[in-house]
Amino acid sequence: MGSYPLMAALLELSDVSARYGQVAALHGVTLTVNEGEVVSLLGANGAGKTTTLRAVSGTVRRSGSVVLNGKRLGRVTPESVARAGVAHVPEGRGIFAELTVWENLRMGGYMLRRPDFQSALAYFPWLQERRNQQAGTLSGGEQQMLALARAFLARPRLLMLDEPSLGLAPLVTREVFRVISDLNEKEGLAVLVVEQNAAVALGVAHRGYVLETGSIVLEGTADELRTNDAVRSAYLGY
Amino acid sequence: MQTFFQTLFTGLSDGAVYGSLALALVLIYKATEVINFAQGEMAMFTTYIAWALMDHGAAWKWWAFFATLAIAFLGGAAIQQTLIRPLERASVLTAVMATIALLVILNGLAGWIWSPQLQFFPSPFPTSSWDVGGVHIAKQDVGTFGIVMACVLVLWLFFRFTKLGLAMRAGALNPAAARLMGVRTSWLLALGWGFAAALGAVSGMMVAPTIFLTPNMMQAVLIYAFAAAVLGGLESPVGAVAGGLALGVLLNMLGQYVHPVTTELRLPVALAILLVVLLIKPAGLFGRVVVRRV
Predict the structure, then answer these.
(1) Residue B119 DSSP class
(2) pLDDT digit string (tens) for B41-56?
């Protein structure tokens, strides 16, 4: 697929560090997500993948600069980042288990005067029939889909997904990534996805970064990463 | 049988007052896990404001009732923003201690401003009663019940059908996730405190005509409200109202039919109920079991 020299950068992290109390979790991470691009963030447990997303969405204190669409995200509260156009589906999906499916979707469109439920539900037709079901009673894969639908309803510039495959069967994972790929191709939605399942993630991503102990050790196009020996042995298992 | 129905109506009227204050406690508890010990004194203080607006209790005025609700709402929101919000990062216990401090401050302040002596508080309803087949139903009781239930209904409609109400429920369930959807949770918490304070003001203005206005008038009512809220399960708004009604009816029935339970024993009985519920069914009668699948 090659690089995209003509594409405008949507999200730019420069020298971003973050810590939890005394424990440093990120050391000067620099990465870019371009408009319309799927970028995947690979790495082992504790490498700082989740923290990178949290540094963007303002759910962890960070230093360094985060620029979204040319504008520096200065005052970082999660709600201000959301209003700037970033939809973050956190670890554990953040579904309101006690609310109905429909109420969860309405929350997705909270920031919009007239959320477009119709076009969002086109990607998730089955949610229509389940609209009155308590969201906590959906299966793991269905909850992940609901989280995706809810995030997309906010009409974000950038969608950030934290381990969408976690706890899902391979077939369900494939389905989730098919929808992610659909949203990217048909809606031009830029996606930054954190995954342990490197094979699946590189399947839909244009580019990727590999994190190790809080620093980026490798970056490249999905093809480059797939054929890189270190990535193959560490994350693809062959 | 006449006595039974008369006792029932008085019980429902008392219970509506307990229930509305219990609902105020539950609103704040659900959103922040803070038990607001100052809820009763906030209600008392706003009732004094209503009393002042009604020319020191000369006559009931509806505009003063609604003005008091607005003042209570703003006051509750202001308390959240100035006193509770800075303690967000501290433990829940710190915030609870702050509400106890607020209880003492408001109580002292009311005594200092309006003097601690008993004041007459007017009722919006006539003292007469309807005679329905030999049963005397006090208009005061029906009116109190009706007003409290109307307020509860308005609140329910707000939470059930408005976007803001939905966001408040979502924010109470999972504040972190709600913020990621762009919800400014801090302002919604202020809104929640405002609603709770307004609801408390309703209970204060409804109970004051029957027990007189004093700085201490809500202390017993708050205990009943605690018992009602625990009975309903602390997490359940419906449970709080139902718990209040059940408690009001139960206490009146006991007073009527079980002679040892005199007025002096009402409070101990309420507390005994609270203890028994905590021992047997800690989740309360309406405590929900949340269905979750990973």
Answers:
(1) B
(2) 999 999 999 999 999 9
CB proximity B20 to A under 8 Å: no
Beta bridge partners of A72: A67
- Interface check for B289 against chain A (CB to CB < 8 A): the answer is no
The pLDDT of residue B203 is 95
Q: Chain A partners of B292 at a C-beta cutoff of 8 Å?
A: 97, 136
Q: How many CB pairs under 8 A join A and B?
A: 81
What is the pLDDT, as a whole number, of residue B120? 93
Of B182, B292, B293, the CB nearest to A82: B182
What is residue A215's DSSP assignment? E
Share of chain B above pLDDT 70, in %: 97
C-alpha distances in Å from residue B56, one per residue of B51, B72, B77, B106, B207: 5, 18, 26, 19, 17
**A83 closest CB neighbour out of B166, B173, B182:** B182
pLDDT tens digits, one per residue of A79-128: 999 999 999 999 888 999 999 999 999 999 999 999 999 988 999 988 98
Mark yes or no for CB contact A134/B291 under 8 Å: yes
Chain B partners within 8 Å of A79 (Cβ): 179-180, 182-185
**Residue A80 near residue A68, CB atoms below 8 Å:** no
Euclidean distance between CA atoms B71 and A131, whole angstroms? 39
| Token pair for A134 | 């308590």
Helix/strand/coil for A13? strand
CA–CA dist B273, B229 (Å, integer) = 11
**Sites in chain B below the pLDDT cut of 50:** 290-294
Tell me the shortest Cα–Cα distance from A15 to chain B, in angstroms: 24
Of A99, A138, A139, Cβ closest to residue B173? A99
Q: Is B294 on the interface with A (CB under 8 A)?
A: yes
Chain-chain contact of B181 with A82 (C-beta, under 8 angstroms)? yes
What pLDDT was estimated at residue A185? 93
CB contacts, 8 Å: B174 with chain A: 94, 96
- Report the residue from B163, B177, B293 with minimal CB separation from A90: B177
With CA atoms as reference, report the closest residue to B278 among B243, B237, B253.
B243
Positive or negative torsion for Cα B74, B78, B84, B86: positive
Query: Which chain B residues touch A146 with a CB distance below 8 Å?
Result: none
- Model-level ipTM above the cut of 0.85: yes
**Looking at beta carbons, which pairs linking B249-258 to residues 24 or more positions away fall under 8 Å?**
B249/B7, B249/B8, B249/B11, B249/B12, B249/B15, B250/B11, B251/B11, B251/B14, B251/B224, B252/B7, B252/B8, B252/B10, B252/B11, B252/B14, B253/B7, B253/B8, B253/B11, B255/B7, B256/B3, B256/B7
State chain B's mean pLDDT as an integer. 90
Query: E strand or H helix at B191, and its extent?
Result: helix B185-211
Query: Which helix (H) or strand (E) is A28 found in, with range?
Result: strand A23-34
Residue A224 CB partners (closer than 8 Å, separation 6+): none
B238 touches chain A (CB under 8 A): no
- Tell me the residue type at B92: V
